[in-house]
């Protein structure tokens, strides 16, 4: 459940930071970038936690699988955002 919450927080941070950056016309500065890096690290931590939860025998499998999918979505979105930023500048 922790992995799912961390992945959801990372996705919410992604949406918030993208909208903030658009509002500031790309001049968000190091503050938004630092939060983005922390959210990327959180997405990878959620991925590691969720893969670990799949190995537990007494856990609910559906929640573990949903957590893995959400974590992969969060990490993939952050990687795509940073890759687009590096390629377009």
Structure summary, number of beta strands: 0
Distance between the termini: 38 Å
The value of Rg in angstroms is: 15 Å
Our estimate of the beta-strand percent is under 5%
Look at the helices and sheets and give the structural class: mainly alpha
Tally of distinct domains: 1
Number of helices: 3
- Low confidence ranges: none
Summarize model confidence as the mean pLDDT. 85
Major pleated sheet: none
Can I get a quick summary?
With 89 residues, the chain is mainly alpha-helical. Helix content is 85%, strand content 0%. The mean pLDDT is 85.
What would you note in describing this structure?
With 89 residues, the protein is mainly α. The protein has one domain (2-88). The protein is 85% helix and 0% strand. Helix 1 packs antiparallel against helix 2 (29-54), helix 1 (2-23) packs parallel to helix 3 (61-88) and helix 2 (29-54) runs antiparallel to helix 3 (61-88). It is elongated. The model has no long low-confidence stretch (mean pLDDT 85).
Topology:
Blueprint: H1 2-23, H2 29-54, H3 61-88
What are the defining features of this structure?
single chain; 89 residues; mainly alpha; 3 helices; 85% helix; 0% strand
């Amino acid at each position: 459940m922790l992995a799912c919450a961390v992945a959801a927080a990372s996705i919410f941070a992604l949406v918030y930071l993208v909208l903030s950056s658009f509002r500031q016309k790309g001049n968000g500065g190091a503050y938004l970038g630092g939060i983005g890096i922390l959210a990327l690290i959180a997405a990878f931590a959620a991925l590691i936690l969720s893969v670990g939860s799949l190995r537990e025998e007494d856990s609910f499998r559906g929640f573990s699988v949903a957590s893995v999918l959400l974590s992969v979505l969060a990490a993939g979105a952050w990687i795509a955002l940073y890759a687009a930023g590096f390629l377009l500048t």
